[in-house]
Amino acid sequence: MPPAFPILFSNDQILRRTKELARRIADDLRGAPPLLVAVIEGARPFARLVQQALPGHLPVHEVRASSYGSGTVSSGEVKITTGSDLPVAGQHVLLLEDIVDTGRTIAALQRHFLAKGALSCRVASLLSKPSRRVVAVTIDYCGFEIPDEFVLGFGMDLDGRYRELPDVVVYDREIERRHGLSRVTGS
Ligand code: IMP
């Protein structure tokens, strides 16, 4: 059993909201299927849902960009380590992201793909933390705006932990500590 972190969005809420976003995406991009690009690892579950909800079973490509070192504080630097050579020239790219925080990752990816000749580079993100923005980015399809909390689950992790939780939960160090203790003491 994982620690009982407070649930922010249940798996059901995520499914419903993603279907709504996919309907809007399908309407907007009728006749011009986008190149779906998931920002991994975190956006994989969200990207799979969007893919399932869009007509035509479009493939999902992957890009890896790291802006976080370790822990909950951004390093500020964005490196594209996988997928920088995707064939985006002449394509409408749709970036699929788990969460937009400072905006640096999405801004760097958009700059990169537009420089490589993408016709457009829209963004669909399950979550957004507007109060944390450092770089102005437009999220064309946003699932939910959230306050400045560190969240986990549905693909999002803390140093590799809790990614597999089905719901989006709020990280709480104290709950995690008590959970660890109860496992040791069996109480
Ligand atoms: P940004 O470049 O600051 O917008 O950061 C975006 C990336 O930071 C996301 O793709 C996540 O990997 C990570 N991130 C930001 N906030 C959170 C959070 O609350 N939980 C887990 N990962 C986060």
Could you characterize what this model shows?
It is a single chain. The protein is of the alpha/beta class and 187 residues long. It has a single domain (7-185), classed as Rossmann fold (3-Layer(aba) Sandwich), CATH 3.40.50. Helices cover 28% and strands 29% of the residues. The protein has four helices and nine strands. It has helices at residues 11-28, 44-53, 104-115, 173-185; strands at 7-9, 35-40, 60-68, 74-82, 92-100, 120-128, 141-145, 151-152, 168-170. The strands form two sheets. A six-stranded mixed β-sheet has the order 4-3-2-5-6-7. Strands 1-9-8 form a three-stranded antiparallel β-sheet. α1 crosses α2 (44-53). It is globular, with a radius of gyration of 17 Å. Residues 39, 42, 67-68, 74, 97-105, 150-152, 156 line the site of inosinic acid.
| Overall number of domains | 1
CATH architecture: 3-Layer(aba) Sandwich
Helical segment tally?
4
Bound molecule types = inosinic acid
Q: List low-pLDDT spans.
A: none
CATH topology: Rossmann fold
Helix-and-strand structural type: alpha/beta
- The shape, in one word, is globular
